[in-house]
Amino acid sequence: MFCDKPHVNLLTALLPQYGIRHIVVCPGSRNAVLIHNFTQHTGLCVHPVTDERSAAFVALGIATAGKGPVAVCVTSGSALLGTLPAVAEAFYRHIPLLVISADRPARWIGQLDGQTLPQVGALQPYCMTHDIPEAEKAGSDGEEMAWWCRRTICEALVMLRRDGGRPVHINISVAEPLFSFTTPHLPDCLPVVYEEAPVVNPLSEDLIKEIASARLPVLVVGQYETVNDPAISVIERTGSLLVLSELIGNQPHSRRLAIVEKIPQVLEKLHPDVVVHIGGNFVGKQLKRHIRHLKHCRVIRIEPGSAFPDTFCHLSALVHAPTGPALQQLAEYLPANNEVMRAKTVFTELIERECRVSAQKNGQEHQENRDSNLSHATIMQLFAAFTDPKTTSLTALHLANSSTVRIAALCFEGGCFPVFCNRGVNGIEGTLSAAVGHALVTDGINLVFIGDLSFFYDQNALWNTGLPDNLRIVLLNDGGGKIFQNLPGLDASPAVSKYIAASHHTSAQGIAQAYGLHYLSAHSMEEVEENAGRVFASDNKALILEIFINH
Ligand SMILES: Cc1ncc(C[n+]2csc(CCOP(=O)(O)OP(=O)(O)O)c2C)c(N)n1
């Protein structure tokens, strides 16, 4: 049986018709009718999570597994406000995240009632609110009301696909009496079909000519979730553009960019005259700074959304188009470029040398002192060897922000498995939750590398009755925000350790016990080596390997 509220039943009927299969639900009385309905619908998979902040990131993580748009349903008041960080993240990463909030009658706002605050517009500027009132409030007859509801819900659900994917907020008023469940069937209700005309050849002939005649044209890939994009592979093989991809850009040869970021002499020799810029947030600081200072560089941005990013401060053209078709055009029409070929050879040699040097260095230090060799980099290098796609099938690598995502770029190669990071807004508050969401709907190991502040911040991610077994967390516990130790000049402040880096002596052991995860710990490289294999073993239980660094 479904509830007796026509607008809630209409929403329930329409959600799966717009590709929504997964809904994360948070406890509450105002949204109870919605939750009830979702659990009754055989086409919907419902995931309960208590903390709304975490729940919205879990939904985001499910969406990144290619499961289409995903919804999170919350009760009224501050519950809705808790979803805001994930909504901002979804906005910048073009992820279709639907927030459904139940609302109280507007006339009670400001009357000192519990969980009653203005909900319309609460998630702006990241998404506008599509407000669905109860029938009695509209003053219209039932038929007109039903028309209005359907139109508003369809409009909202269509918006999820705009701009290459975006967050959307549906606010639905639920008046008392709240609980009555006697409706046997959902209404027969067809969705409004929405089609966007396919984009073919979005780049003009002039732009292609400009790129083709450049001395050293470069393709810079920020965060991009199409792993191993076939068009980029063609570009790489042809040698028409020098591909410089972030690790979270998910393309092969991502270590090229890591080398550029690490070795100043390499960066100084790199003088592209045309940059084609795709993808989202860019982690690397050095290349960004370098291109900004190049006098005669022209940047062509391919932008799927409505933003106008001039990341490298030399924007000469902005093509408003989905990234895929533009890349296909480049793959098809650009010829090989000799300077690109030369640069590729130089980079291959540099990367090989870098690998040899760090292997030698690690080997020596390893023999001399196994404890002092324990660092973010040596740990990740060790795990990178385990995650060789020839031997281990890793479903996804989830990287926390701060030091983790930066250091991982030197240790892992892109394009081998999907790499995720909440880099849309670079927050530390939802890494674990997003990883849990992704693991919930995928098979195989989901490996998380995370710093301690990010882990303890988001520990509610593990407070989940359906915690997936395939979740493996490597917690790099260096007792605070390591990143703040490396900020030039900050060490002069006596406030660093206690007040800025939030130093602590917390351990995850009790958390693992409370939420039923396997717990392993390591204080030396030897112990890391001993335990690394267990992280990948096919145990039927989620696991935390806590590595204490510099404690
Ligand atoms: C929600 C949020 N609050 C604060 C910050 C600022 N911040 C950036 S990095 C960082 C420290 C992260 O520490 P940890 O997770 O232990 O990683 P480590 O620096 O040790 O690698 C903080 C607090 C942020 N990015 N996001």
Describe the structure.
The structure is a single chain. By secondary structure, this protein is an alpha/beta fold. It folds into 3 domains: 6-173, 3-Layer(aba) Sandwich (Rossmann fold), CATH 3.40.50.970; 205-345, TPP-binding domain (Rossmann fold), CATH 3.40.50; 369-548, Thiamin diphosphate (ThDP)-binding fold, Pyr/PP domains (Rossmann fold, 3-Layer(aba) Sandwich). 38% of the residues lie in helices and 16% in strands. It has helices spanning 6-14, 32-40, 52-64, 78-81, 84-93, 135-138, 142-159, 205-212, 230-238, 255-262, 264-269, 286-293, 323-333, 338-368, 376-386, 403-411, 431-440, 452-457, 496-500, 509-515, 525-536, and strands spanning 22-25, 45-48, 70-74, 97-103, 129-132, 168-173, 217-221, 242-245, 274-278, 298-303, 315-320, 394-399, 419-421, 445-451, 471-477, 518-522, 543-548. The strands form 3 sheets. It has a 6-stranded parallel β-sheet, sandwiched between helices. The chain has a 6-stranded parallel β-sheet with strand order 13-12-14-15-17-16, with helices on both faces. α1 packs parallel to α7, α3 (52-64) packs parallel to α5 and α3 crosses α17. The longest helix is centred in the middle third of the chain and has 31 residues, at 338-368. The termini are far apart. Bound molecules: thiamine diphosphate.
